[in-house]
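Researcher: Next sequence.
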Amino acid sequence: MKKFIKLELILLFIILTTSLLSCTDTSKKVTISNNTEYEILIEDNQVSELINKGKNFLSNKKYNEAKINFIRAISLNNENKDIYLQIKNLYLNSNRLDDAYYIIKIALLNNVDTENMNIILTEISSKLDVINISETVTQNSSYSLPNDINIDINNNKISLPIFWLNSKVDTSQLGTFKYEGINNEYGRKIEMEIVVTANKYTTEYGYIKNIYKQYDKLYADIDLVEYFTGDEAISEAIKDNSDEVDLDSIYFDGPYYKRNNSSKITTYELDTSFAYCEYYPGVYAPLDGPAMTRTEHRIIKYSEFLDQYKDTLISNPDKSYARISTKNNKIYAIYRNDFYFEWKDVDYEKKDQ
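Model: Next structure:
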C-alpha cells in the first residue's frame, strides 16, 4: 500500500512539472509576439515622425535638413517601397525634381520594386530641363565632344559625366549639327549644337617684334603695317609726301608702298602647321655656261622656328619685315624677302629634290 501511494505521488509530481513547463513556454511565446508588434509599432512611428519633420523642413526651404530626416526614415526600413514613394511625392509637390530623382535612385540601389521604380525614374527624368550647349568650329578641324559639363543642381555646382549617343564629330560639311547625350546619375539629357563655319584666311604685313613660348604654344608679336601695290601704292605715297615707293620691284607687277602710322602690337598664336619661308639670292653655276643668280629658299617648321630664328629676327629689323598669312586668326605661314608663294599651294619638299 505504501508503495502504491509513493508511486501515485511520483506520477502527480511529473504531471504538475510538465504542466508548469508547458505554461512557461506558452507565456514566453506570447511575450515575444507582443514585443515584436510593439517594436514594429515603434519603428512605424519613428518613420512617420522623421518624414513629418522632413516635410516641415521642406516647407520652410531647409532642404539639407529635410534630406537628412528623409534618409534617416529610409534607413529604418529600407525595404519599404511606400517610404520612398511618400518622400518622392513630397519632393515633387515642392518642385524638387532632382531630389525626387535621387530618392528613387536609392530605392533602385536597394533593389526595391525595381521595375516600377525604373518607370518612375524615367517619368521624373522627362520633366527635367534639357541641358543645351553649343560650339563653333571651322571646317575640317578636329573636334571632340566634351566628356563632362558643369551645371547648377539645387544651388550646387556639379560636374556631370556625359555619355554621347554619337560621339564622332564630322566637320567636313558646313552647317549646324546636333548631338545628344545623357547623364543617368542625375537623369539629365544634353543637347549640343555644333556650327561648322568656313575657314577665314587673311594676309598681313609687318615687323616681327617677338617670338615666344607660353603654356607649350608659340606666339608672335607683330607690328602691322598698311601695304599697297600698283597705282594705289603711288597715290598713298603722294598723300604721305613720301618717296619710299619701291618702283623697281622685280617680283611684283608694279611698285609697292608700306605705311606704319601705328605703334600697336598685335599678338598671334602660331598654328601647329606653321612654316617660315625665306627667299634669298643664290648662285647657280651650270657646267656648260656662265654662273647666274637664282632665288633660293629655306623652310623652317613650327618645332624649329623658336630656336633657330628668334634672335636673328629680333636683332635684324630688315630681316624681321615679312608677310603674315593667318588662318582663323592663327599664323600658319611667314614669308620674307618680297618673293611670295602661298605655303599651302607649293610642295617645297618635292621642289628641293
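Model: The first helix runs from residue 2 to 59. Residues 1-7, 9-34, 338-353 have pLDDT under 50 and may be disordered.
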